[in-house]
Input
Amino acid sequence: MLYYFLYPLHVEFIGFNVFKYITFRTFGCLVTSLVLYLLLGKIFVKFMRQWQVIQRIRDDGPQSHLTKAGTPTMGGILILGCVGLSTLLWMNLASSYTWLALLLLVFLGVVGFFDDYRKLIYGSSKGLPGRYKLLCQTAITLIIGYYLFSEIPFDTSLSIPFFKDFHPDLRWGYLIIMVFVIVGASNAVNLTDGLDGLATGPLVMSFATYGVLSYIAGHSIIAAYLQVPYQPGAGELSVLCGSVVGACIGFLWFNTYPADIFMGDVGSLSLGGILGLTAILTKNEVLLAIVGGVFVLEAVSVITQVVSFQLTGKRVFKMAPIHHHFELKGWKEPKVIVRFWIISFILSLVAMMTLKLR
Output
């Protein structure tokens, strides 16, 4: 919005020329969403506590988590509000990619809201049945995929790191990849969000990484130099990534151990979904397995646990997701959180290193 109101004024005052630069608007968006959450966070926490919007703790979880009962939840509502407002303020409103990401953010946010709401009204840790969440996630992904293929010249080839000359064109079969990446990322972040700040830290690092990757993918000269697929318009996603980074850092101020508020499914499902969509739109879909390695590890640990128990009657981990396994091994919660953050930081660096290895 500021782009349209202020950039045209550069003909009279050269200083307004900065609004045309994605880098300036990205940092402006980051600061805006960060300040918004820091200003409103305390009020929001107080409001949720007054209205008894509190976390329902699993009876079969680690006993140490029982002390978290009564902590406000659904902090993702304010994250989504800060992301949406700051992005609309700083984005180029002609960006189709950003509008698609905001659509997905809102839709999955609504799904997550109903999931959290059911937990509240029924006083249980079980919310919306998993099959309904998967159906909604798959449906919106297919709608976005159909729009991309029908209305926008979208590259349906698969970009594989380390193989710069191998880009198999999947055509409509790429929809399967989209569903796998977006739905998988959405649920993986949701599974990771089990400790104070555990999902938030890796989300900050992942979106910061994809902010850089988005800028590269949308810059024809840099993309050609690094030999990565050029995606016209993808650079504007950097602004969205910046807003998520800012909002998540602001949320982390209140979510760090011991948490004053939890994210809830309204935040984790939606943020995971747009992380997956950003990976798709920037043609870094395979790279998400590295950038979001912590989320992948959490999801794989759950799948492994379920499959192992059903086939053999034995559990591989003391408890899944894997962060609970380490808790039951005697690791204190802050140790689990910080070590997972360190792993996420290392994986983000590895992902950036691949740009020179393609």
